[in-house]
Write a structure and sequence with these properties.
Helix content: 40-55%
Largest sheet: 2 strands, antiparallel
Distance between the termini: 36 Å
Structural class: mainly alpha
Strand content: under 5%
Shape: globular
Order of helices and strands: HHHHEHHHEHHHH
Length: 275
């Protein structure tokens, strides 16, 4: 059964038959605890699963409204255990790209080509004349990204997987400028680094955890970060993605996802011979 959507902004909402509201920014069911509660009608969300998850767990206002730059910085520290420097860099950098210097809603992050960018692994691109990008994830893109991950370590999304998937996705989208290309690489490096644990640079992130984080904005039950994710560690992980992508685009590295297309295009007899 498909997840129902909010009549306000088509953000995922709880399928449970409860009628409570997050109008005050606090969940009356979970209170000030950080248990998961899906968005309710009227709650605002962004295309960013990191921010949506922080709101769904109460690190940001659960209604997604009246969010300040310090709120975002503190939530990144408390929810994901980012270092102070990285959390404040991301928070102030995001608000600067939005040219917003007062409280905003999470929906403001959907303004196209500011923080949000084309060639997302999980969202469709905004149409040419649209000011705001789509909020809901695209099931086809999510399914494809999850199936294309796990090529190096079964069941886990590695940095190398991300490079392969990003090269394939970008080939079918508008060219990203330098800033948004770096955002696209960095957001996945941070997701893997935080949710995958202290050895994630080598071992990647469990695909089920990634799926729930992207589609539901949900952290695993009783999950806590096992390390502080800092700027230097994030830079090193982003560099792996960047260097692999550059090598594939230059033709000096093979993208193993191209093998899927080759296999799919092969005549049935040839395909059978390779098995």
């Amino acid at each position: 059964m498909s997840t129902p959507t909010s009549p306000v902004l088509a953000c995922p909402v709880s399928s449970h038959n409860d009628q409570h509201s997050h109008s005050t920014g606090v969940c009356p069911v979970t209170g000030n605890a950080h248990a998961y509660c899906a968005p309710k009608p009227g709650d605002l969300r962004s295309p960013c699963p990191a921010l949506n998850t922080l709101a769904n767990h109460g690190y940001l206002p659960r209604n997604g409204k009246n969010v300040g730059v310090f709120d975002v910085a503190h939530a990144l520290q408390e929810g994901y255990q980012l270092s102070t420097f990285l959390a404040y860099t991301l928070a102030f950098g995001g608000f600067s790209l939005l040219a917003q210097y007062r409280k905003i809603s999470l929906f403001d992050f959907a303004r196209h080509n500011l923080v949000e960018h084309d060639a997302s692994l999980f969202h469709l691109d905004a149409s040419n004349d649209e000011e705001y990008a789509p909020i809901p994830v695209n099931d086809t893109l999510v399914k494809a990204s999850l199936e294309e991950g796990g090529r190096y370590i079964p069941g886990r999304m590695t940095l190398e997987d991300v490079a392969n998937i990003r090269v394939k996705r970008e080939a079918g989208c508008k060219t990203l400028d330098g800033v948004h290309a770096e955002i696209a690489r960095g957001e996945m490096a941070i997701a893997i680094g935080v949710l995958g644990g202290k050895d994630a640079a080598k071992n990647g992130l469990d695909l089920t955890v990634l799926r729930d984080w992207v589609t539901d904005g949900r952290l695993p039950d009783n999950w806590k970060p096992d390390h502080t994710q800092g700027l230097y560690q994030t830079y090193k992980m982003t560099t792996v993605i960047r260097d692999n992508m550059a090598a594939m685009k230059a033709g000096s590295m093979h993208n193993i996802l191209d093998d899927d297309a080759t296999l799919a295009a092969a005549p049935e007899g040839e395909t059978a011979k390779t098995k």
